[in-house]
Amino acid sequence: MLVISRLLHCSKCSTFKKGWLSLTLSKSSHLNNPAFMSRSDRNYLNTIVQRLFPGHRAQYDYNSFGYQHATIWVCSISLFNGVIGVGRGSSRSSAAESAAHRAIDHLRPRYIQRWPRAFRR
Asked: Could you tell me if 115 and 48 are in contact, meaning their C-beta atoms sit under 8 angstroms apart?
């Protein structure tokens, strides 16, 4: 049994599930679905960028600051020399995931009406 101790947010139903999460069935089965939980916003963003702008890639830039035992990472994602998402986190990957989530939120309202297929999962 896999157990994770953190607060999980479900973008599908906009609910939070607190405390210890175990892979048991509940009313919202998508909260316990390992495939849904392991979804990477970085992969999804790269897929969106490939569909909207073939031949172009999003560029990830990382900076870290703070003390060695409490480092804070900042990731900025740029596309066509413009920043589309900035995120911060306690690790490099969590900062990149946060920045990718914000970049998706930046791109979705601008392009979903013209190219809805670019945002399918």
From this structure: no
- Angstrom distance (rounded) from CA 54 to CA 115: 13
Residues 6+ apart with CB under 8 A from 77: 45, 58, 59, 60, 61, 83, 84, 85, 86, 99, 100, 103
Whether residues 45 and 70 fall in one domain: yes
pTM above 0.90, yes or no: no
Do 61 and 76 sit in the same domain of this protein? yes
Q: Are 21 and 56 contained in the same domain?
A: no
Asked whether residue 33 falls in the same domain as residue 46, the answer is: no
Query: What whole-number distance in Å separates Cα of residue 21 and Cα of residue 25?
Result: 11
Give the range of the structural domain holding residue 111, as residue numbers without chain letter.
Answer: 41-119
Residue 6 Cα to chain centre, angstroms:
16
Quick check: 21 pLDDT over 80? no
Residues 27 and 73 in one domain: no
Q: Read off the pLDDT of residues 60-118 as tens digits, 9 standing for 90 and up.
A: 999 999 998 999 999 999 999 899 999 999 999 999 999 999 999 999 999 999 999 99
